Amino acid sequence: MKNDIRREWEKEVEFVKCMSGQMYDTKIPARDAAHQAANDICWEFNNTKPSDVKRREELIRKLFNKVGKNVYVEPFIWVGFGTNIEVGDNFFANNCCNFMDPGKITFGNDVFVGANCGFYTAHHPIGTELRNKYYEWAFPITVGDNVWFGSDCTVVPGVTIGSNVVVAAGSVIVHDVPDNCVVAGNPAKVVKQLSPDGTTRAAREV
C-alpha cells in the first residue's frame, strides 16, 4: 500500500484515538479522503466484469490491509477504509456485504460470509450533542477460524467470535461467541454445541 492516500489518515492524532478505543472527531479531511479512496476501489471492484477474476483479486488485495491465499469476494462490497480489514486463507464473502472498518476487522482462516452481512466497528454516542458533532468510537471485531455466517447477519462493534462457529441467517451478534457452537437469533445466543471437528455434539437447546 505504498503511496496509498488512505495512509495519510493514519498520521492524524484522531486516528490514534480511534484505534485505541477513545472517542474521536470524524471531521478530519484526511479521514474523508481515505474513505473516498476506499469507495473508489469498491466502485471499481463492483463494476469489474465477473469473468475478470484476476483483476477482482488484485483490487481486493489493494483494498484490504492483509489477504491470505485463495480469497474470493463477490460484488457488491462496501468498506469504510479497507486498511483495517485482514482476512486469512480460504476467505469467501457472498454478495452485498458491508465491512465498516474505522476499527480493525480480522477474519481467521476458512471463513464463509453469506450475502448481505454487515460488520460494523463504529459506535456513535447515545446523547445527541456529541453525536451531532460527528464524534464516535471504534471497537474491533475479531473472527476465528472455520466460521460460517448465514445470510443477513449483523456483527456490532467490539465483538469477538471464536473458531468452529456457525452463525444462523439473520442473527445479530451483540456479545462475544465462544468456540465450537451454533448461534442464532436477535440477540444471538448459543443454540447448539459442536465438536472441535465441526460435528454436532448435542442437539439440545443451550
Would you kindly provide a written description of the structure presented here, covering whatever features stand out?
This protein has an eight-stranded mixed β-sheet. A five-stranded parallel β-sheet has the order 2-5-8-13-16, with no helix packed on it. The chain is globular. With 206 residues, the protein is an alpha/beta fold. It contains four helices and 21 strands. The relative contact order is 0.11. Strand 19 (181-185) and strand 20 (188-194) form a beta hairpin. 19% of the residues lie in helices and 31% in strands. It has helices at residues 13-19, 29-46, 53-63, 128-131, and strands at residues 24-25, 66-67, 72-73, 77-79, 85-87, 92-93, 97-100, 105-107, 111-113, 118-120, 122-123, 135-138, 141-143, 147-149, 154-155, 160-161, 165-167, 172-173, 181-185, 188-194, 200-202.
Keywords, separated by commas or semicolons:
globular, 21 strands, 8-stranded mixed β-sheet, 206 residues, single chain, alpha/beta
Q: pLDDT below 50 for ≥5 consecutive residues: which ranges?
A: none
Number of strands: 21
End-to-end gap: 45 Å
Mean pLDDT: 95
| Main beta sheet strand tally, sense and closure | 8 strands, mixed
One letter per element, helices H and strands E, the order comes to HEHHEEEEEEEEEEHEEEEEEEEEE
